[in-house]
Amino acid sequence: MADSLDAALQRVETVTPVLLQTATWTGLQRRGTAAFYGYAVKERIEAGRQVNEVLALGYLLGTVRHFLGTGWQPERALVTGAHLSARGEIEALFGCAVTLGPKAGLVFPAHYLDTPNPSRFGICDAAEDEPIGNDLGTCVAHLIELGLDEARPSIDGIAGRLGLSRRTLQRRLEAEGTGYADIQRSVLIRRAKARLSADRLPIGRIGIELGYADAAHFSRAFLEWTGLTPRQWRHHVRQGTPA
To answer: pTM of this prediction?
Structure first.
């Protein structure tokens, strides 16, 4: 929803610690003509820190590529530690050299920060200054959308985030004339259409990201939602014809 890459990364620095609910820093540092988009866990981690950092850098890379294109590659990436296993494989994934440093992050020319947002959108297609809203259904939709970045969240997980029991959440959603399954389906449809329209990812990969076991299960669900298979939907979008 931000106007530029710079504005987006400033927002990331503000909201990430709140969303992750841990002592985590994710933000932007300027170093002369270079920009450093970094990630750090401030808590002590005895094992798995480097793996955590590599995973986080993948999310950071996805944010920058929204502005600079899916083929964009940083000048280099950094992770902490004294040794990096599988360096070659990791460098192939990021498309750049990966070095060791005091913080994990991506390095790229600072002038890229002025890049305007090529496709502004909100989690629920809301206007930039429009609040999430105080109705429970909208809040649940936002939490499901955020949870999809890791794995499809369960009703128990969402209820826990809201400080409610499963039954209380169901009862309150019913009072609003909706249900968890209906909200989840709406979020999945919106995310699926956005991914099929904007990305060149294989359909099976998109299905897995949405929590389906394979491309066949995703295709059947999408056909039920829209009357078209994912492949047909993507073809209509690329041809510019109504789907």
So the answer is: 0.52
